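In the laboratory, one determines a bound structure by crystallizing the protein with its ligand and collecting diffraction data. In a computational setting the workflow is compressed into a single prediction: the sequence and the ligand go in, and a structural description comes out. We illustrate the idea with MU-OXO-diiron.
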Amino acid sequence: MKAKAVKMADGVYWVGVIHWHSRTFHGYGIPGTTYNAYLVFGEEKTVLIDNVYRGMFEQFDARVHDAFEQEGKEFKIDVFVQNHSEMDHSTFLRQTIDEYNPDAEIYASANCIKFLEAQYHNFSDLEINAVGTGDELDIGGRTLKFISAPMLHWPDSMFTLLAEEGILFSNDAFGQHVAHSKRFDEDYDTAYLLREAQKYYANLVTLGSPMLRMKLDELTNTGLINDIKMIAPCHGQIWKNPAPIVEKYSEWGSGVCKDKITVIYDTMHHSTEKLAYQIAEGIMSEGVEVAMYFMQEDGPDDVITDILDSKAIALGAPTMMNKPFPRIGNMMYWLDCVNFKGTGSEKNALIFSSKGWGGGAVAKLQNDLEAAGFTVTDTLDVLFVPDEDVMAEAFEKGAELARSIKE
Ligand code: FEO
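The predicted complex, in structure-token form:
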């Protein structure tokens, strides 16, 4: 296979792979993705940063060799840097070391070393140097600075800064799942890219928000933030202009939300749906943005994306056998997993339901939402089909929820 490496700066190349037809990753829907790896040529050492996912070695291998051809240098990798051990970035690490240079130096965080062995069971014979914040590597006229970044995305995650050029190899952080023929932020509509980055953050990084805040503070306090001219993540486009994504990470990680309410519902005979639509009208009557999801058709990953920057949610499910309609359950588990509370945002919730007789959905949803960190401010439990009086009540409850987030 032939594949060209993409030059990012003098002696710095993208040598990753494009997974055009990947449609799910980590349990959520994506429009394709990339697994980015990078090659850095120093005067004395050539460094390969990160690796790629299963089925992708040929494309990766072709690109790595092409980078050497473009540089006009004899093929030789001197150093492997592994920023994170998850399989999408490490599947071929051992094979690559064995084929490219078994005597190369290898650098990773202490947790990464442990996690590699626990996943592949074939790393224990290698001498891997444990590094973290404060450690540096001189590769000849160029310096790699290692920066520990736990929980962005796993406890083993690390950033590597190419100091002279200000290129931050950030692994999962600042990534997006997109599959584009070009490599940089400027090749995409920024709003689209930031929306994909929001989906990525909401579903993968939200849990690590407290660590993100500490990391951004640390980069700011040490002045390193001013040295970063380009952010090269391990998924999606490379940020030649890092300012928009750093600003968004700062907002998402600290619970900055819009005047926006995400309405989520499921329905059996359209009664709960009627309530959802009416509540949305009430919210909109107060000039507040609505994102609407119907869980028969929509995925929990998209719901999570919109909840990230919503100040409140309205959640509805009919009662079935004294419990919420089960199809709402997948989304509820996702909500509980991502832990929005960690961002610092306080999110209100309105719960609504249509029941046939005894009910039960509202109490269960309230219990689960409160456990997930939401403040349930109001409920609406309706007998069978809502009449005009109940619809008016639903409208007013939507409007009241909207007013509550504007105060
Ligand atoms: Fe893209 Fe945590 O792996």
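Residues 84, 86, 88-89, 153-154, 172, 234-235 surround MU-OXO-diiron (CB under 6 Å). Keep in mind that any predicted model is a hypothesis to be tested, not a measurement.
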